[in-house]
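job 3f2a | input accepted
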Amino acid sequence: MASKLKIIPLGGLGEIGKNLTVYEYGKDMFLVDCGMGFPDQDLYGVDMVIPDISYLKANKNRIRGMVITHGHEDHIGAIPYVLKQLDMPIYATPLTAAIIELKLEEHDLLYHTQIFTKKPGDKFKLGCFEVEFIHTNHSIADSVALAIKTPIGTVVQTGDFKIDVTPLQGEMTDLTRFGELGREGVLALLMDSTNVERPGHSLSESKVHDRFDQLFKDCDKRIIVTTFASNVDRIRQIIDLAVKYKRKVGITGRSMENVVKLCVELGYMKVPDGILVDMKRIGSVPRNKLVILSTGSQGETMSALSRMAFSTHRQVDIQHQTGLGHFDLYALGVLLSTLLIGHQIRNAGTQIPHHAGNAFHLPDGAHRDGGDDLLGNVDASLLVGKRHITLIFSHCDSPFCILAANFISNVLFYHAIPKITTANLMP
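job 3f2a | predicted structure (427 res):
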């Protein structure tokens, strides 16, 4: 009997984070992404959530490699924990590969792991599969979608993407290549649908830059911005505005320090001499001339932002107020997963702009019209009557992005997500 193509999501389907998808055909299988999830409040004492890899360990001799779409934690955060149990090569774009190398070095795995750097347009073999990288827009550079040629047809997996016609860096998503693949014939499309319920197109990163610019212009106090350490576009925007308004920038959070250093070295970010200031020296900088970039946008208990909120940060004290009705700190774009930290910060005399999340946080996934744009290109030449099915890689429950039920007879797509595995980082 002929082999069937199996597509197995071990995480990231119907949830945010913990992205890991397995492709299997015959004796060959490979992984797409290997991310972590952030623990909910009911997972007390858990630092991170990682996918259950029991199935991978049971089939370790068939794994041909791991392919990474981009460098965000929900797509790479679990890599060190998986590689401690399974040995496989990694394929990624230059910036993504460099961020992964930082992680592996921390876990003493770097010199035991093969990492192959690829660029958009590159094709490479993994057993019976051929994988092609396709350029996409996201909030981190070097993001790609995948065209996966299998023995029974081509599968396209978009990774996280949006259609940004005015990206801060590089070209817009390569819709031309998606259209070419559509004309060639696509067996299945696995598309990020994180924000597909939102109408219209995703807001461009350049629009958020304008909003930040206005707040920098109007602010005469110290500024703290918190974001993911891997949100390179946002970090670059803040540093550029600090230069424009003659402010120094202090970076707190080891992961963000490492990413900024890496981006400067690789040319993804330009930081003029004298702009960055050591956190131990921020006391010598006037408050109205200082910007602090911090990790902790998800309310992580050990993050720099959490330590500030609860007065355990060594360099940043937000408890001091400068007079009745005045605020010592002006915090921008604070995205908190717990109300507790937000309440604590406000009690300390911190002003968080109203609707900050709406104004300064760009949802990473494409909105509905952006999804339609990509879907229209890939789906353009599918057989009349749509006998070739389009699968939607879903984070939501709208009819637009529910997984289609009528699968092709030689494709098995597994809905079930195995139990989670948690990791406690404390010794």
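job 3f2a | The radius of gyration is 22 Å.
job 3f2a | closed
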